[in-house]
Amino acid sequence: LRSDIRTVKVAVITEVMGFTEAEDKAFWPLYRQYDAEMSKLADDRLALIKRYGASYSALDDATANSLAQAAIDLETKRNEAKARCYQQVKAALNPRIALRFLHVEHQLQLLVDLQVAALLPVAPTGKDTP
pTM score, two decimals? Predict the structure, then answer.
């Protein structure tokens, strides 16, 4: 799934960004670095999802808190990676191109996040019978 998503992302970014040859040369090395970082964070996210699934039927307050903190930390790292990439693209190209990339990347991440969220059950409250 991830390799399919990467292929689609590259195609969408290429199409939407409409880079010149010089912009293309400047952008893609930065993107590959960013994508490698996001891939590592996706691995961390998968591990967190597995942890959530393993503890779902016996979720206690301490585990719920730990999972929530880990999810918040992960989202912070994702945003920090996007911010670094934005700064690098802005420096290598210009702020308009960097904003355009940030916008496209955000939309693509939202689509993936929605697909993942749709597969996960909502955390039980303790009153639920999982």
Answer: 0.86
